[in-house]
Automatic annotation (TrEMBL):
Organism annotation: Lachnoanaerobaculum orale
Pfam family, one: Nitroreductase
Molecular function as annotated in GO: oxidoreductase activity
Named cofactor requirement(s): FMN
InterPro entries in alphabetical order: Nitroreductase, Nitroreductase-like
The keyword Oxidoreductase appears for this protein: yes
Domain of life per record: Bacteria
Keyword tags: Flavoprotein, FMN, Oxidoreductase
Identification of the protein by name: Nitroreductase
Nitroreductase domain: residues covered: 8-62, 66-147
Entry annotated with the keyword Flavoprotein: yes
Length: 171
């Protein structure tokens, strides 16, 4: 499948079967994360794989947006390792680096027949504390993933896009 078809086929899955993702497929998803580009190759992104019943329950206590997924990736970045733009104060790369990693993971999961959803609706700092992550690690998203339940289909909003001219401007 070509890239555009793959990207169009990806949609947010919010209902999962109980079947756990096979180890070899998790490894491919993590390899996609590992090879993702980062600013100045600083590689500040961090990925935490949550599959234990205890870990999933901790996440469910923090947000309703786990959607009974058997695996949840917590994706963030190490503040001390992000690129800092010396030409303009406040421009740093951690969120961008982690977002690129998350996108790679979503697309690889789709190619492997695994559904996922990007979740922003969670208490970032409290989640990091509950999992005893270093204070310097900033979570940017959760990514529940697994095999979609039998009755799952894409949201009607999946097909709605603004005209491309609103996004792309030629200067």
């Amino acid at each position: 499948m070509d890239f555009i078809t793959l990207a169009k086929n990806r949609y947010s899955v919010r209902s999962y079967s109980e079947k756990q993702i096979e180890k070899d497929k998790i490894n491919k998803i993590l390899e996609a994360a590992y090879i993702a580009p980062s600013a100045k190759n600083k590689q500040s992104a961090r990925v935490y794989v949550v599959q234990s019943e205890e870990g999933i329950e901790k996440l469910r206590a923090l947000t309703r947006c786990v959607y009974n997924a058997p695996t949840v990736m917590m994706i963030g970045y190490e503040e001390s390792e992000q690129y800092v733009n010396e030409m303009e104060e406040g421009i740093v790369s951690g969120q961008q680096d982690a977002s690129i990693v998350a996108t790679h993971m979503m697309l690889e999961a789709t190619e492997l027949g695994i559904g996922s959803v990007w979740v922003d609706g969670f208490p970032n700092t409290k989640t990091a504390e509950v999992f005893n992550l270093p204070k310097s690690v900033k979570l940017i998203c959760l990514m529940p993933m697994g095999y979609a339940a039998d009755d799952v289909k894409s949201s009607p909003m999946h097909e709605k896009c603004r005209p491309i001219e609103e996004m792309v401007k030629t200067l």
